[in-house]
Amino acid sequence: MRFRPGASGLALLAVSSLTLAGCSAGSLGSSSDSGGKGSVELTYLIGNQDQDVKGANQLAKDFHAKYPNITIKTETRPAGTEGDNIVKTRLSTGDMPDVFNYNSGSLFQAIAPQKNLVPITDEPYVKDLDENFKKTVTADNQVYGVPVGGFQGGAVLYSIPVYTKLGLKIPKTWAEFMANNAKIKAAGGVAPVIQTYGETWTSQLFVLGDFHNVAAVEPDFADKYTKNQAKYATSPAALKGFEHTEAVHDAGYENKDFASAKLPDGLKMLATGKGAHYPMLSGAVANMVATYPDAAKTVGLFALPGDDASTNGLTVWTPGADYIPKTTTGDKLDAAKKFLAFIASPEGCDSQNKAGAPTGPYAVKGCSLGNDVPQAIKDMQPYLDKPGASSLALEFLSPVKGPSLEQITVEVGSGIRKAKDGAARYDDDVKKQAQQLGLAGW
What are phi and psi of 123, to 5 degrees? Predict the structure, then answer.
């Protein structure tokens, strides 16, 4: 199941209404843009999470300041499966707004980019896009999207004051992590591991965020998994994520209200020192800091630890992207291309920095995170700078995924289902989708 920031996660599931963010129209081509006259209004479809809306509105405002002749009007859609269906339906009916934001990776491939999207391969700024990111928005050697937001890490957000008080060190192995949890529980008053199964998507981190560790042990797992030659239930390395989910529950390390708590509850616990660890995507940091400003300094981040400290590293999600549907033509297409060029530039990154704390390093060369970056985001950079210390999440390397992982990990993390059974059930869950995709070996 794809993490959706907001949910890049990171968060995510809500019912949406249309939101309009208008700017006064100017005149297309009135200055250095082109020789034509007249104004252009673009509609920009985005997710409905607060940070999504803030970021899009800031981009629209700053872009309009640079191109007064082009107005950007934003429209929102829900996250999750409902949002996926809206994107697919609007593309298939020719009713997609002029520019839209959507996932990169396997979900991008599922919207038939060759059929539905305008390629941007020949645009000059494409050379400045991160190579890993470009892989996730490319089909048949054509690039289709520009990144919005930064890389996200699937990691553990942790309370720096709790670590300082108890004299704990950042764990690089799972055994060290569980030893820290034992000390935190013994000290009392703080939940060692925050879980928020009231929003089921948040339950997947120990599995999906563990892929760097899987790849370190089985470098060809993604390829074999796509060919139905490797499975979670029969791969000892891949099974670990389910086993870790089970182990945290069985040890009694979860917060008491783990079954009903939601993302805002988890972020509050972490920010106020009521919880020590929260397995989460780094994109949640922006929402947390917006509500609890002190968390910018009191919450840090470390990679989900595996069995071997020497291969410790971070699983990363590339940002979502903005795309232009083929139904955008004429002056609107010219304006939309200008908008994408602006987003994929240091100016665009600076605009996003104004809207809120970045989720991680940007996928555009020359971009800066800004001066006031939360500690948790700073903590990502060493993993990205060190060769071999970061890996793309599985969803960017394989199209195989199933819709029920979040329900399965809730069951495993609640003691309802054993890890091996959960992994086997997920292996069955992905089979139908793999067959629908027509993948060989299924």
Answer: -70, 140
The pLDDT, as a whole number, for residue 37 is 55
**Average pLDDT over every residue of 109-133:** 94
Rounded CA separation 130/377 (Å): 18
Kindly report the pTM of this predicted structure.
0.76
The percentage of residues in the chain with a pLDDT greater than 90, rounded to a whole number, is 77
Both tokens of 322, joined, read: 């903005």
Q: What sign does the dihedral 282-286-287-290 (CA atoms) show?
A: positive
Q: Which candidate, 315, 295, 297, 296, places its Cα nearest to that of 305?
A: 315
- DSSP-derived secondary structure for 210-275: THHHHHHH-TTHHHHHHTTS--TTT-HHHHHHHHHHHHHHHTT-B-TTTTT--HHHHHHHHHTTSE
Mean pLDDT value across residues 186-211: 97
Please tell me the distance from the alpha carbon of residue 177 to that of residue 267, in angstroms, as a whole number.
20
Give which of 164, 396, 199 is closest to 280, Cα–Cα: 199
Contacts with 216 (C-beta within 8 Å, 6 or more apart), sequence order? 306, 308, 311, 313, 391
Please give the mean pLDDT across all residues of the chain.
90
Instruction: Give yes or no for residue 286 having a pLDDT over 90.
Output: no
Q: Which of 7-16, 78-87, 211-220 has the lowest mean pLDDT?
A: 7-16
What φ, ψ does residue 364 adopt, rounded to 5°?
-125, 125
Portion of the chain with pLDDT greater than 70, in percent: 92
What is the pLDDT at residue 283? 87
Structure token digits, residue 76: 């929102």
**In whole angstroms, what is the distance from residue 302 CA to residue 379 CA?**
7
- pLDDT tens digits for range 288-343: 999 999 999 999 999 999 999 999 999 999 999 999 999 999 999 999 999 999 99
Q: Are 435 and 441 in contact (CB under 8 A)?
A: no
CB atoms within 10 A of CB 18: 11
DSSP track, 365-425: TT----S---HHHHTTHHHHHSTTSEEE-GGGT-----TTHHHHHHHHHTTSS-HHHHHHH
Nearest CA-CA partner of 194 in 154, 254, 249: 254
Integer Cα distance of 209 and 314 in angstroms: 8
Alpha-carbon distances of 276 from 69, 154, 158, 303, 414, rounded to whole Å: 50, 17, 5, 15, 19
CA 175 to chain centre: 27
The CA-CA-CA angle for residues 156, 362, 52, to 5°, reads 75
